[in-house]
Design goal:
Two copies of one chain form a homodimer.
Chain A: H1 10-23, H2 36-43, H3 47-60, E1 63-66, E2 70-73, E3 78-80, H4 88-94, E4 99-111, E5 114-127, E6 130-142, H5 159-167, E7 173-182, H6 185-190, E8 198-207, E9 213-221, E10 227-232
Antiparallel strand pairs in A: 1-2, 3-10, 4-5, 5-6, 6-9, 7-8, 8-9
Helix pairs in contact in A: 1-3, 2-3
The structure holds a DNA duplex (19 and 19 nucleotides).
Chain lengths: 234, 234
DNA sequence: TAGTGGTCTAGACCACGGT
DNA sequence: CCGTGGTCTAGACCACTAG
């Protein structure tokens, strides 16, 4: 049930309930959730409010709507091969590789929206005697949320591990824009390029389940990475 | 002014007007646009409709809102964001745009796996007297599955509509690799580039629900497209 | 035809920011 | 204080889908 006097808006409360039911499987993948009309009755709110909640979940990709048919659950809309946030580190370990990070730069910076810890790392794998770098990651971590984050040595520790274990914060969503970039000197050196090339860059934010920003991120992908994308259409 | 009897929804019409004013600089970067109350008066529509239009532009990244202050123009110039293949025509129509296709090349070709119909199109939107091209799509359609596909005029018809309505085949999944490419002469002409640039290319296959290949596809995205990607961890 | 989502109206009260 | 956006109500009519 919803609490009309809560500071949390009704649509956000409903959103949470629906998300829960989708993720626990009470609403099954591909099947319809109750109609908007039903939801207005069940929760005793207007359709506008129901639509706001559903709209957000559609935006999020958890639901889709079909005119005249209904609102349906969509799980696993997008998968990604290299773009997994449970991390880079775990991903490579599973493949039997030895992940390596080299910190290129770290310092406090002030962006318009507050104070951040800037962390720039080259990340890759150990190959025999050599290191093959795959990405250059630049993170801007809000110090308001992660006070003392500068104490950690991120050439050894995983950023997301620290967020989870030390701050009890769980990265959940990311929204990035993919762009082409032309290699600069840093990229040339890290990726061992012999001349100027086009590379891919992903730039965006990582948030927790409430949509709070955890990190501004910018990742440049080296030439050894394929950016594979699978989508499901309806 | 808005046309209440147009098939294009009022919010989409308003959206288009606002987008226009932002992009032409009538609403300047960082400055506020008229308040929601003013817009309701100016266009003689309700605030709900105004908010729907503004909401979409906020989503698109062209505007941001600050509680108690106003609605402001955002510096970055994001025009279109496309996250899957299904959306092109519908996505643009919803925005009150007029999608345009120009067939650049079409012929039968033999690939190692069989006979295909090659269809290369530039796709974009009508802007006043001009056409702004957004993508160059190259499709290879298996003739074994789509005999007679060469009869259709794909400058007018949607490829997927034909697949659905004439062949009763439904595109469902896609698997593509995203790569950077350097512009060639065709791209230079279609996208009206003044010099060589890095662009994005998606290359892969589209399948139906049984995993049967419907199309090999290669899409080059012009500089007016941002490739926005949202991921969720579960 | 009945049920669904898509659009829109005409209000209301609230919280926030700056004066 | 006033003007801004944020939320919400209680309706209405329409277009689409399926039986």
């Amino acid at each position: 049930m919803l609490n009309k006097h809560d500071v949390v808006p009704l649509y956000a409360q409903l959103e949470r309930i629906l998300r829960e039911k989708i993720l626990t499987g009470e609403f099954k993948d591909g099947e319809p959730i109750p109609s908007e009309a039903e939801l207005t009755k069940t929760y005793n709110i207007t359709r506008t409010t129901v639509r706001k909640a559903i709209g957000n979940l559609v935006q999020e990709g958890l639901l889709y709507q079909a005119h005249g048919k209904g609102t349906f659950v969509r799980l696993q809309e997008i998968k990604y091969s290299i773009w997994n946030f449970e991390g880079f580190t775990d991903y490579l370990r599973k493949k039997g590789e030895h992940p390596v990070s080299r910190v290129l730069e770290q310092k406090g910076v002030r962006l318009d929206s507050g104070d951040y810890w800037k962390l720039k790392r080259a990340r890759g794998v150990q190959k025999n005697e050599k290191v093959l770098f795959l990405t250059i990651d630049t993170s801007y971590i809000p110090l308001r949320k992660f006070a003392g984050i500068d104490r950690y040595d991120f050439s050894r520790e995983s950023l997301y591990d620290v967020m989870r274990k030390e701050y009890h914060v769980y990265p959940r969503n990311s929204e990035v824009v993919i762009q082409p970039v032309t290699s600069d000197d840093t990229m040339k050196e890290i990726f061992d390029l012999d001349n100027v090339r086009s590379l891919l860059k992903a730039k965006g934010i990582v948030t927790d389940e409430r949509g709070d920003e955890l990190e501004k991120v910018e990742i440049v992908y080296g030439p050894n990475i394929e950016f594979k994308l699978m989508t499901k259409m309806r």
